[in-house]
Design goal:
The chain is mainly β. The protein has a single domain, classed as OB fold (Dihydrolipoamide Acetyltransferase, E2P) (Beta Barrel), CATH 2.40.50. The protein has one helix and five strands; from the N terminus they run βββαββ. A five-stranded antiparallel beta sheet has the order 3-2-1-4-5.
Length: 151
């Protein structure tokens, strides 16, 4: 699935899209679908070397409102963050516990799993207190169990 790059607007085009109102999910465990994945590059920091990264958009249904919410997460392709990569690929069922994996990145968009979401509080560049959702951890894949007579 290609990333939506948008389209150029002319100076005379009519505009109407006002964006979506941000909806904060309560902390908890949710099912998710990977809506999109974009390959990127992390420039490095004093704590981690430069590396490739996968920028994920997770689609999560808010059980209280029924609205679809988006949570963004970045997976770093660095040995320091290998545990997080394993956690994610276990969650979507590509990796088996205790076995090595060469990830199938093309299959990541539309993959589904379970995730634990937390509320992150921060101060923005204008000094305002803000909140957003953050992935606390990806939970291991649980295949649906077949029970005779149940749908």
């Amino acid at each position: 699935m290609a990333e939506d790059l948008g389209k150029e607007l002319s100076w005379d085009d009519q505009i109407e899209n006002e964006g979506q109102e941000f909806e904060l999910l309560p902390e908890g465990t949710y099912d998710y679908t990977v809506e999109s994945m974009a390959r990127g590059r992390f420039a490095g920091s004093e704590r981690m070397a430069a590396c490739n990264c996968a920028n994920l958009t997770l689609l999560i249904r808010n059980p209280e409102t029924g609205n679809d919410c988006r949570v963004f997460d970045t997976l770093y392709l660095n040995s320091k963050a290998e545990w997080r990569l394993s956690q994610f690929f276990l969650s979507i069922g590509q990796k088996k516990k205790g076995e090595p994996l060469r990830p199938n990145w093309a299959a990541v968009p539309t993959s589904c799993g379970k995730v634990e979401i937390e509320v992150h509080e921060y101060v923005d560049k204008n000094g305002k207190a803000r909140k957003n959702n953050r992935v606390a951890k990806y939970l291991p894949y649980e295949p649906k169990k077949f029970v005779a007579g149940e749908f």
